[in-house]
Amino acid sequence: MRGRLRLHVAAAVTALLVLAPLARPGYVLRYDMVFVPRQPLRWDLFASGDALPRAVPQDAVVSLLNLAVPGWLLQRIALVAIIWFAVVGAGRLVPARRELTRLVAAIGYAWTPFMAERLLLGQWGLLLAYAAMPWLVRAAIGLREGRRGALPRVIVAAAAAAITPTGGLLALTTVSVLLLGRGGPGRRAFGAAFGAVAALNLPWLVAAAVTTAGGRSDPEGVAAFAARGENWGGPLVALAGTGGIWNSLTAPASRDAPLVPAVTVGLLILATLGYPVLRDRWPAGAAARLGVLAVGSFAVASLAALPGGAAALRWLVAEVPGAGLLRDGQKLLVPYDLCLVLCAALGGERMAVRLKHPGDRLALVGLVLLPVAVLPDLAYGVAGRLQPVRYPQEWGVVARAVAQEPGPTLSLPMSMYRSYRWNHGTVVIDPLARYLPVEVITDDTLIVGGRSVAGESGRVAQIRGTLAEGRSLAGSDLRWVVVQHRSGGTVPPQVLEGLQVVHNGPELTLYRNPTAPPTETERHGGWPLILGLCFALALLLLAILSLLRRPTAW
C-alpha cells in the first residue's frame, strides 16, 4: 500500500511539473490539440464522408463528454490523466524488488522525449494510448496466467488506447503478440481478448469503410514524416532514445545537446543488463513477447531511415489501403519505449545490488532524476510552450450566427494549420472545424518542410479549383464562408462577390451565400458509425461493471 501511495505522489508531482502553465484559464492550442468551449455533436465529427478517419472516435468522444464537461476542464483532465496513468502504470508493471526501482520506471516512462514531442505536436489521443500501454501489458499477462478479472482489464486499457486508429492498432497488436500461441484455455482467452479489442476498433474501421476518400495516401508524406536526427547521432540513435519526431519545431531544445547520444547508449546498456531480470521475474515467455513488440515497433519506426525503406514505404502508402498509418513511424515506438524503460530500471537495480549501502540507494536515486536532468525542458509545459489562451469574443458571435441558419461552411484562406497572434503565434489545426455548430470545410493539404502532402477530399480539391480560377463562391452549395484575417494568407476578392457580409470583425468576417440551396442533412453513412461507437461503448461499460462487481487489483 505504501508503494502504491509513492507512485501516486510521484504521478502528482510529475503532472504538476509538466502541466504547471495549465493552472491559468484558457485552452492550450497546439498543432493537433484543439479544445473548444462546447464541441458540437455533428455527423462529420463522427467521421468525415470524404476523408480518412484520423480523429475517430476521438472527436466523437470529446463531443459526448462536452455535454457534461466544459472544454477547458476536459483538456486538463485528459492531460493530467495521461501523465498520471503513465507514471503509475509503469511503476506497477515493473517486477522490481526495490521501491526506488519502481520510481525509476515510473518517472522514466512519463519523462521521455516521446512524451515531450507528442505533447508539443498536440497528439493527446496518441498519448492516451502511451499511458494505457503498461496497463494493457499487465492485464494481458494476467490473462495469460488465468487471473480473475483480467479480460475486463484488457478491455478497459484497450478502450483508452483505441481513441485513435493508431492507438487501437497498437492495442490490437499488443494483445495478439502477448496472447497468441497458447492452446486450450489460452486459445479461448486470446480469442475473447482479440475479439473484444477488435470491436473497440469498430468506430474507425467502419468510418474507413464508408468514406469516399479511399484508403491510400500521398507517398510524398513518407519523406515528410520520416524520423529526424536530432544531433550528431542521426535518426536511428534519436529513435533509440525515444525521440526523432519529424517536426523539428516540436522537439525540445535539450535534444540537440551533444551528450544525448551518449546517454542513449548508456540506457541501452542498462536495458541489456535488465532484460534477463525481466525474463526471470515475469511469467514464461512474457518478456520475450514484449521484446518482439519492442523490436518490431522500432523496426517500423526506423524503416524510412534505412536503405530502401523509404521506397518500400512509398509503395505501401500509395498502393495498400490504410498503410498511410506507417508514414509517421515514430509514433509507433510505444512498445519499444515501455520495454526500454522497464529493462533499464531493472538493469539499474541489478547494478545497484553490487554497491554498498548507501551507494546502492544513491545510484537508484540518480536514475530516478536522470530523465529530468537529460530533458529538463519537459518541465513547465515543455519550457513554457503549453500556454493557455482565450478565444476572441467574435468567435462566439460567428458561432451563434451560423447556428441560426445551419449549412456547409468554408474556412478561408485555404490552410489546414493556422497561426494566430492571440495564440502567441503557435501553429494549430483550424479550430473553426470544432468551434462552429455546423460542418466546416477546411483545407486538407499539409505543408511539411516545403513539401506538399495532398489530402484525400474530392470536395476540397473542387473548392481549391474554384479559388484558383477566381470564380465566385456564390454559385456553390456553401451556406457560409468565414474569412480569418491575419492567418493563412489572402483571399482573392472576386471569389467573395455575391456574398453578404453578416459579421465583419478584426479577426473574422462572416459571409452568407444567398443563393445556397436548402440544406439537406448529410449523414455520410452515419448510422453504421453510430452503431459501431455504441457497440464499443457498451463493451467498455460491461467491462467496467464487471470490475466494479468483482473488484480485482490492477
Automatic annotation (TrEMBL):
<feature type="transmembrane region" description="Helical">
    <location>
        <begin position="259"/>
        <end position="278"/>
    </location>
</feature>
<feature type="transmembrane region" description="Helical">
    <location>
        <begin position="192"/>
        <end position="210"/>
    </location>
</feature>
<protein>
    <submittedName>
        <fullName>Uncharacterized protein</fullName>
    </submittedName>
</protein>
<feature type="transmembrane region" description="Helical">
    <location>
        <begin position="333"/>
        <end position="353"/>
    </location>
</feature>
<keyword id="KW-0472">Membrane</keyword>
<feature type="transmembrane region" description="Helical">
    <location>
        <begin position="290"/>
        <end position="313"/>
    </location>
</feature>
<keyword id="KW-0812">Transmembrane</keyword>
<feature type="transmembrane region" description="Helical">
    <location>
        <begin position="124"/>
        <end position="143"/>
    </location>
</feature>
<feature type="transmembrane region" description="Helical">
    <location>
        <begin position="362"/>
        <end position="383"/>
    </location>
</feature>
<keyword id="KW-1133">Transmembrane helix</keyword>
<feature type="transmembrane region" description="Helical">
    <location>
        <begin position="155"/>
        <end position="180"/>
    </location>
</feature>
<feature type="transmembrane region" description="Helical">
    <location>
        <begin position="527"/>
        <end position="548"/>
    </location>
</feature>
<feature type="transmembrane region" description="Helical">
    <location>
        <begin position="73"/>
        <end position="94"/>
    </location>
</feature>
